[in-house]
């Protein structure tokens, strides 16, 4: 019976597409994760724990600023660009991509200016030594490329997940290569900062080059002409969507980088380095859910939310992702400690205790991935904003409180609680949206007509 059920699942062409695209991304992410471990291992072994923590904090600062100002333009392109292409309306599609590009430019420049201005005042609090502030300011110049999500959205809406998969290996490969060169060449802390910088920059530029090439191949000209006022007027609900998703994801995307910064500020760079190692392993373990989400969202945007089809796809995808999460959980528990000791050295084995705590939330993370996409499909992005904001606020309070109570262990406990809060707060409005699905098509048709 179970076999017949699974065969029925894969008889669904949309479900097969979701799994296929997730497989593309998953294969490259696996390679990228291994290369990322090599880069971290070189930095961990080539630097003292304090310097390794400082490197993590510098990267986290630039990444955190970028996350706070970043608009989720890839979601905007999928949400508005997919139906435009379906109708063959290239003019509207150009408005969508031009509007997204304009937002990326504006947010990137704001983030760059803010990051550079604030860094000298915040460096000491974050634990960045005065002699390393200039290197940290250099790293901040990556913020404009870190915030740009337009090329990712273009490739997703054009169903070029294979190219995204290739690009995902560029940055970790370059970072691993630079790490090996810095380690064996004895270039020290500055060498690792520069190689990480170049890897991030070249990886981002590669993504832009791929999207430009794909637009040319499709014969879509002028899609990257930035504009805000004109496209914003012509695209109904555009500003509401981008501001809502911006706030929601700025809150949650900053989770990792800001956590590293808070741990570094309260416990010092060495603890920030340990937290980074544990978080890296956890992020790698939970990647299948992220990959399923990236392939799931574009596909359900082509479906009618009033039917049961997208909701059934969500349940099937969640069950598969949760099952994978259980297998990964066992692997992490059994093999996490020896891997950390082998890759980073015995002085970093303490990170395994954190990893054990974090993996307690792995199945929740992986099984709940469809919830956010379902809310966007149902036009309830504000519910997603409230859910993510409430969960992030709860996480922040718990992070400060539990660190003061239990030290580095408290950071792991807070991480688990934050993941569970997010899943719970997302589930409730998703359930309400499902129960009201009969009215969704009518409402969304009215919005499109307006």
Model description:
The chain is an all-alpha fold and 450 residues long. The chain has one domain (2-449). Helix content is 84%, strand content 0%. The chain has helices at residues 2-10, 13-46, 49-69, 73-86, 90-126, 133-140, 143-147, 150-157, 161-167, 170-185, 188-217, 229-234, 238-253, 255-267, 269-285, 287-300, 309-344, 351-359, 362-367, 370-377, 381-406, 408-435, 440-449. Residues 446-450 have low confidence and may be disordered.
Record keyword descriptors for this entry.
single chain; 450 residues; mainly alpha; 23 helices; globular
Strand content: under 5%
Separate helix tally? 23
Low-pLDDT segments: 446-450
H-E order: HHHHHHHHHHHHHHHHHHHHHHH
Number of domains: 1
How many runs of DSSP E, i.e. beta strands?
0
Average pLDDT taken over every residue: 79
* First-last Cα distance: 47 Å
